[in-house]
Amino acid sequence: MSDEEATDLAPEAAGMDAGKLAAAVRYLEEHSGPDGAKELLIVRHDRAVWRGPRVEKVHGIWSCTKSFTSTVLGLLIDDGRCGLDTPAGQYVPELDAHYPGVTLRHFATMTSGYRAIGDEPQGTYVHGPSKTPFVPAPEPLFAPGTLYAYWDSAMNQFAHVLTRIAGEPIAALFKRRIADPIGMNPHRWSWGDFGPVDGLLVNGGSGNNGKHVQIAAAEMARFGRLFLNRGSWAGRPLLSPAWVAAATTVQVPASTPLGGPLEHGIAGSPFPIDGRGVYGFNWWLNGVAAAGARRWPDVPADAYAASGYNNNDMFVIPEWNMVVVRLGLDQKECPITDATYNTFLGKIGAALTDA
What we know:
CATH superfamily: DD-peptidase/beta-lactamase superfamily
Order of helices and strands: HEEEHHHHEEEEHEEHEEEEH
Number of domains: 1
Shape: globular
Number of helices: 8
CATH topology: Beta-lactamase
Radius of gyration: 19 Å
Largest sheet: 6 strands, antiparallel
Distance between the termini: 27 Å
Number of strands: 13
CATH architecture: 3-Layer(aba) Sandwich
Helix content: 25-40%
């Protein structure tokens, strides 16, 4: 723990009504599976005001991994080693034949059109399930930048490109530049990988095929606090405020046409894969979606989230100076929908006494 996190803060001392906060947590428990609020951690003013009994439990977080991947891009841009419009084929020549126009921006916004060999549907999993994501398919989904399609193998290829730019595994770079400085316990987080590709170990960029980040809610909250504090930790800048702002600003206009085989959501999942109007650089935002509604209407417009399968979610809400992490493994029993999260977070907002 960092100095400011040495002790938790009573809700009243954090400007919150303890009874209303407890009611919000009860609501979440009643509208989720058996993991309930066991891995729930609520942080306000950099201090925990609610801590579930299993916030040290480590497991995979699926597509929350994507937000870690784009953070590595931010570090490399901060270092001047690449830019958003750097062609991916500059570092992975295999892309030049069929994906010459794909840039790092396209990968980070799910607008690359990249498709890998092996991306054919696997049951209800149709959004890029390839186990060989580094082998480009000759037929793109679409021309880069023209459509939006949430696509897992594209994110894994993105991680491969970032690995080539970094000259080392992206987990190693993230650990040295982010995880260690913010005090993430090295025994409570790790990052899955595909093994060596042309001599360099490549971590999973998407969260599928078991190559995701494994982490505890307590460590995940540190990552959220870094973003809440605009890239600084205890006064030390680790990530530029410009990157934090860009990554958590809508980067996919609501007017962008939708591509890919699924238009309304992942089968069996409450999470839409339509990021138009609500997607930054691999962060989900509280923007106005293509359908015209805000994602979480009872939550401040500046909120954003890292979201993954199995009810794994982290919300950063700058207006409330708050990070909310809810991890679990219980989506099959009871998916937590956006509507449920909206009500839960709205109840937390109602508990604020100093807003």
